[in-house]
């Protein structure tokens, strides 16, 4: 499949399909961030979405798009945290059982949340082993909901872009995190269709930078391990589809350190009273790096994609100096 497989019409259809299943999250201008960066800065609070991240949008769209004969024994997903929760939640709401394969390094709060949503959670040595087993189940008995390389998932995530444009059509720049690339692919498809001049900036963290490495190599690159604390950005590789869409729509991808992400996590918590996970707070770190690209008349949106970080983890980040 190519980037042309997901179009604005698909995203509009996804919004209709998942209506009533997900929340329309707020987008607000931040005086604090605007003063800091010297331009108009807004935050899209997708961390207030059901399950604490944007992921239910794609999960619902994928599962609701299945035909009666495609549901099999239920849904199966691979996840470092947020996607697993979303598939478990969406499956439960639709009335399907779910299996979620997670690496053993997955934070406890993500595992417990997926179990709480009714999933049969199975821990595997690493994300590669989890993908292998999920793909096997998908071939044999289950409906495999890929975390990013799926046109229905990408279209569902793109509904965030529709909301951003409708709430702030004056935006000049949007900063979006990248894991496997499905989220930025959907959001950028929607935004570029509405305003071809808007600039989309991607963000990764060191140790979870599969897209940056793929762009540099001009091919999909397999990471040997995920070492970043931003576990929800921990895709071992992007896909040909998401790489193509990123090359088409995204200005550049900024890679920030864990320590920068944690610094901004604390800033957002102390000043905006928002607890964002590192995979979301990294957008502010990227905006700081990008500030020379913004002028006083720029209107910049930071997409805070998730807030599923435990208090214990926040304390650990602070103690370790990450």
Summarize the structure.
The chain is α/β, with parallel strands linked by helices and 322 residues long. Helices cover 46% and strands 16% of the residues.
Q: How does this model look, in words?
A:
With 322 residues, this protein is α/β, with parallel strands linked by helices. It folds into two domains: 3-54 and 151-320, Rossmann fold; 56-144, Rossmann fold, CATH 3.40.50.1100. Helices cover 46% and strands 16% of the residues. It contains 13 helices and ten strands. The chain has helices spanning 8-18, 31-37, 56-64, 82-94, 108-116, 127-140, 151-167, 182-194, 210-217, 240-249, 258-272, 278-290, 311-320; strands spanning 27-29, 40-45, 75-78, 98-103, 120-124, 143-144, 173-177, 199-205, 250-256, 299-304. The mean pLDDT is 94.
Secondary structure layout plus pairing:
Blueprint: H1 8-18, E1 27-29, H2 31-37, E2 40-45, H3 56-64, E3 75-78, H4 82-94, E4 98-103, H5 108-116, E5 120-124, H6 127-140, E6 143-144, H7 151-167, E7 173-177, H8 182-194, E8 199-205, H9 210-217, H10 240-249, E9 250-256, H11 258-272, H12 278-290, E10 299-304, H13 311-320
Parallel strand pairs: 2-10, 3-4, 3-6, 4-5, 7-8, 7-10, 8-9
Antiparallel strand pairs: 1-2
Helix pairs in contact: 1-3, 1-7, 3-4, 3-7, 4-5, 7-8, 8-10, 11-12
């Amino acid at each position: 499949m190519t980037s042309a497989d997901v179009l604005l019409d698909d995203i509009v259809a996804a919004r209709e399909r998942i209506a009533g299943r997900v929340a329309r999250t707020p987008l607000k201008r931040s005086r604090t961030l605007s003063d800091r960066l010297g331009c108009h800065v807004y935050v899209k609070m997708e961390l207030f979405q059901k399950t604490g991240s944007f992921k239910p949008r794609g999960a619902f769209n994928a599962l609701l798009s299945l035909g009666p004969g495609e549901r099999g024994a239920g849904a199966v997903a691979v996840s470092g945290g947020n996607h697993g929760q979303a598939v478990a939640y969406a499956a439960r709401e639709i009335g399907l059982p779910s299996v979620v394969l997670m690496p053993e390094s997955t934070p406890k709060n993500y595992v417990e949340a997926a179990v709480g949503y009714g999933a049969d959670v199975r821990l595997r040595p690493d994300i590669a082993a989890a993908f292998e087993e999920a793909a096997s189940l998908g071939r044999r008995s289950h409906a495999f909901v890929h975390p990013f390389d799926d046109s229905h998932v990408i279209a569902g995530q793109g509904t965030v872009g529709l909301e951003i444009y409708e709430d702030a059509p004056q935006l000049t720049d949007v900063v979006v995190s990248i894991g496997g690339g499905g989220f930025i692919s959907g959001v950028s498809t929607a935004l570029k269709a509405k305003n071809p001049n808007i600039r989309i900036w991607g963000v990764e963290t060191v140790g979870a930078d599969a897209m940056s490495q793929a762009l540099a190599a001009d091919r999909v690159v397999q990471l040997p391990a995920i070492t970043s604390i931003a576990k929800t950005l921990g895709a071992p590789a992007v896909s040909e589809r998401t790489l193509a869409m990123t090359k088409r729509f995204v200005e550049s991808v900024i890679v920030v350190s864990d320590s920068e992400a944690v610094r901004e996590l604390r800033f957002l918590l102390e000043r905006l009273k928002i607890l964002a996970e590192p995979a979301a707070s990294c957008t502010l770190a990227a905006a700081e790096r990008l500030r020379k690209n913004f002028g006083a008349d720029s209107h910049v949106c930071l997409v805070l994609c998730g807030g599923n970080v435990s208090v214990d983890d926040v304390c650990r980040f602070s103690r370790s100096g990450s």
